[in-house]
Amino acid sequence: MRAVVQRVRGASVEVAGETVASTGPGLLVLLGVGRDDGERDAAWLAEKVAHLRIFEDAEGRMNRSSSTSGGGARGPQFTLCGDCRRGRRPGFDAAAPPAKGEELYGRFVELLRGHGSR
Predict the structure, then answer these.
(1) What distance in Å separates the CA atoms of residue 29 and residue 66, rounded to the nearest whole number?
(2) CB of 79 within 8 A of CB of 34?
(3) Which of 23, 55, 78, 108 is labelled catalytic?
(4) What pLDDT score does 116 carry?
(5) Catalytic residue from among 6, 19, 55, 77
(6) What pLDDT is recorded for position 62?
(7) Does the annotation count 19 as an active-site position?
(8) Which residues are within 8 A (CB) of 62 and not within 5 positions of it... i.e. 6 or more apart?
(9) How far apart are CA 34 and CA 12, in angstroms?
């Protein structure tokens, strides 16, 4: 699994013109699921993302995690598994098939919510 994690003032994720996730201040997480990823990968990454200390505390130090600092938006992004090492067209052989990707993405979101991140 690969995740791009970004602090945002506000963000939304659209699929086919429909907003599927949005947030005010918090995190935007784009998740790529690989062919060989499984439940353990989803659990490890959800715990890691939920507890990244990337928000400022009262003293201005980056010492608070998303689980204590507000919500977030999440979106699937299979292109994170693209391989651009050869040629000009990325290969997506390492990406999970759509059904598996959707299943593990859903599990990641469920686990992330369990850690207190909205």
Answers:
(1) 11
(2) no
(3) 78
(4) 67
(5) 77
(6) 82
(7) no
(8) 53, 54, 55, 56
(9) 24
Listed in order, strand segments (DSSP E) in 1-118 are: 2-8, 11-15, 18-23, 26-32, 53-56, 62-65, 71-76
Phi, psi of 10 (to 5 degrees): -175, 150
- Specify the amino acid at residue 24: G
d(CA 118, CA 113): 6
Q: 78 catalytic, yes or no?
A: yes
Say if residues 82 and 34 touch (Cβ distance below 8 Å): no
Summarize pLDDT for 32-87 with one digit per residue, the tens. 999 999 999 999 999 999 888 888 888 988 888 776 555 677 888 989 999 999 99
Q: DSSP strand E in 16-117: where?
A: 18-23, 26-32, 53-56, 62-65, 71-76
Cα–Cα distances in angstroms (integers) from residue 118 to residues 28, 32, 44, 56, 70, in the given order: 11, 19, 17, 18, 7
CA dist 58 and 56 (Å) reads 7
Given a cut of 60, is residue 92 above it in pLDDT? yes
Instruction: Check if 77 is active-site.
Output: yes
